[in-house]
Specification:
This protein is 39% helix and 24% strand. It is an alpha/beta fold. The strands form 2 sheets. Strands 1, 2, 3, 4, 5, 6, 7, 8 and 9 form a 9-stranded mixed sheet that branches. A two-stranded antiparallel ribbon has the order 10-11. The longest helix is centred in the N-terminal third of the chain and has 15 residues. It starts with 10 loop residues before the first helix and ends with a strand.
């Protein structure tokens, strides 16, 4: 049977799609493709149908057809909750996407929330809380007045951060994940939002932490700029990323992004962070193999105001 997620709203198309699922399950991918194309003739704007067609075509050994189907999925459903653009880009030499569609990330984690922590901790040997705890042990000036758990998820990092701040805020795109975080009772405030489109805070944070979050963003220029502008002078940014080639941002088969050490370091320097500590770490297991990453601790510039001759205030960065 076709999952409710893939229902088209037209019973004739849905029956065809159910039959296509059966054929695919039995190994008749050519038949599944033909039947599902018939369903899409009935409902040509059915994004989920185009996504499924791309999956069938890829499994059948037709990457060109799969890329075309996923491109059609994005065209008819631009918010791309299925991540079709990412699947398309994985078949291209030069990906078009530099971040994951927020609707895809939201739907993914809304579905994943009930089993998120057990999957990470019991099956993937997730090291996030331990890595952040070790990183914070190197940070001077803790505790701080205000801290932000950026992309807080179910709040796994919350208990690690709580002893280091008087006020702890969390933000995440998935309401289901936030509901899980709320149950922990360690946050003073939790907000639902896309971290790529956050407003600047009314009061700066002394500490911003993003554990296993930037893997879903790709290009980090916008979010690193936001962090630099949202930290108090001398505040600290701590985050982890999957480790890629030195100067590159790479979209992996897992549909997560990997970031090179040089890319991360140069971006932080451009944003005014110093000093910057980047360490090689193991983030978790994936299919029994270590997922190597970077754990980054960076301090925002310490700024003081001084008067110019015309009476305007200029910011002077003090190393």
């Amino acid at each position: 049977m076709v999952a409710r997620l893939f229902a088209s709203g037209d019973p004739h198309a849905d029956r065809r799609a159910e039959f296509a699922e059966t054929l695919a399950h039995l190994g008749d991918l050519d038949g599944a493709v033909d039947v599902l194309r018939g369903a899409l003739d009935i409902v040509p704007d059915w994004g989920a149908g185009w996504f499924r067609l791309g999956e069938y075509l890829e499994r059948a050994g037709d990457p060109t057809g799969a890329a075309e189907a996923w491109a059609r999925c994005v065209a008819v459903q631009p918010d791309d909750p299925f991540g079709a653009g990412l699947r398309r880009d994985l078949l291209r030499d030069q990906p078009l996407s530099d971040s994951m569609p927020p609707a895809f990330v939201e739907m993914l984690f809304d579905q994943y929330a009930p089993r998120f922590e057990s999957s990470l901790l019991d099956h993937l040997d997730y090291q996030g809380p331990a890595l952040i705890a070790d990183a914070l042990a190197t940070v001077a000036g803790l505790p701080v007045a205000r801290a932000l758990d950026l992309g807080c998820g179910t709040g796994l990092i919350g208990p690690v951060l709580r002893p280091h701040c008087a006020y702890l805020e969390g933000v995440d795109l998935s309401q289901a994940m936030l509901d899980e975080a709320q149950e922990k009772g360690v946050y003073d405030r939790l907000d639902k939002g896309d971290i790529q489109g956050l407003n600047f805070p009314e009061q700066p944070f002394g500490l911003i932490v993003a554990s296993d979050v930037f893997n879903y963003l790709g290009a980090l220029e916008r979010i690193i700029g936001w962090c630099a502008a949202s930290l108090a002078p001398g505040g600290t940014l701590v985050f982890t990323v999957e480790q890629g080639q030195d100067c590159d941002v790479t979209l992996r088969e897992t549909r997560r992004f990997a970031h090179g050490r040089d890319y991360v370091g140069e971006l932080l320097q451009t944003a005014g962070f110093a000093p910057i500590d980047i360490r090689d770490v193991v983030l978790r297991k994936d299919r029994g193999e270590d997922v190597r990453g970077l754990c980054v601790v960076a301090q925002a510039a310490i700024a003081t105001g001084r008067r110019l001759d015309d009476g305007e205030t200029q910011v002077e960065v003090v190393d």
